[in-house]
Amino acid sequence: MTNCETIRESIGGWLDGELSPGESDSVRAHVANCAACGEVRRQLEKLHLALKDQLSAEAAGIEFLPFWRDVQQRINQKQAWHEELLDWCRDFFTAPRIAWSVPAVIALVLAAFSLDVYLPGWRFGGARNNFAAVESIDAHGRSVALLRENESKTTVIWLYQDQEGENEAAEDATKSGPAF
Amino acid sequence: MELSDSELVKQCQAGEMSAFQELASRYYQKVYMVSLGLLRNRDDALEVAQEAFFRAYRKINSFQGGSSFYTWIYRIAVNISIDTQRRQKRNPLDFRESMDGVLEAQNEVARDPFADVHDRELREKLTKAINELTPEHKAVIVLRTIEGMSYKDIGEILGCSEGTVMSRLHYARKKLQDKLSVFL
């Protein structure tokens, strides 16, 4: 980035009086000696004036009394219940509260689910079915089945060899002799 | 002797409607300018400015004085303006109408006998260029232009840091300069 580009990024801040004294001095010195950056400064000032003139001219046409009458009318008007509710929500659900509410809801849900551990008699979401879960893993003809039952907190591990696997194993044994 | 804003706010919190009227008379044009700068439509801007004062009155008791009254009322106006603008963008028909309103407003302003053709054209192009900025970029440039507000105050109104204000201003000005370079 050239010096001119760096300075141009700071011309706005300098005109706004938002730079430190040291930065201001360096921008001022550069703009005084560089025609291109001086032109950028002139354009920024003209832009500022054009926008300010435009908005001021518009605002000058607004009379206070009719403006105030309308505001007063709104103040005196009784709000409908849904508008009051909307106002309340707008005030209550501010950005920081919404940001905090997400982890708070997650924590509450986790706490509700973990009640099962601390209060065995308590059931989240009503009575549960007392079903046992069966999972099986099948590998190379040998299978492992896990049977879990929540009510009595019982887990049964069942190792077995299915018929197909047994036949394959028997064939292998006849071909290659005893493995052990 | 003229009362300060904070004294008027205290009176208003004690139920003095005339104190709020005094505050409104001090800031109604500035609040209108902020809304107009953001919405580019006179009717919408007037509606937003009145709504901002109405909401400020309703919430005056919750105003703690941590910031000045004017940054507070500008914040309300900016939030309503941005909400209005988003609603308009969701409804393209409303948006077209607001654009027509802007151009009509610009022609009326340009009837000023002292304004030359070049300036008139600049105003029209300026309106269009500002309309193409995002609400956040529009807000920083309008708040800075209207009252020469500090970056700290602008950041307070928009809920962002001074560094963010500075970078948004730089970006917005650069965009406007690029689009209006022929007229500047």
The gist of it:
The complex is a heterodimer of chains A (180) and B (184). Chain A is an alpha+beta fold and 180 residues long.
Q: Most extensive interface: pair and counts?
A: A-B, 33 and 49 residues
Specify the number of helices of chain A: 7
Given helix and strand content, the structural type of chain A is alpha+beta
Percent range for helical residues of chain B?
over 70%
The percentage of residues in β strands of chain A lies in: 5-15%
Q: Helix-strand pattern of chain A, N to C?
A: HHHHHHEEEH
The share of residues in helices of chain A is: 55-70%
Extended strand count of chain A:
3
Structural class of chain B: mainly alpha
CATH topology of chain B: Rna Polymerase Sigma Factor, Chain: A
Radius of gyration of chain B: 18 Å
The CATH homologous superfamily of chain B corresponds to: RNA polymerase sigma factor, region 2, helix turn helix motif
**Strand order in space, largest sheet of chain A:** 1-2-3
Cα separation of the termini of chain B: 44 Å
Return residue spans of chain A where pLDDT drops below 50 for at least 5 consecutive residues: 176-180
In this structure, how is the largest beta sheet of chain A organized?
3 strands, antiparallel
Oligomer: heterodimer
Count every beta strand of chain B, where a strand is a DSSP E run of 2 or more residues.
Answer: 0
Number of domains of chain B: 1
Q: What top-tier CATH class of chain B fits best?
A: Mainly Alpha
Q: What general outline of chain B do the C-alpha atoms trace?
A: elongated
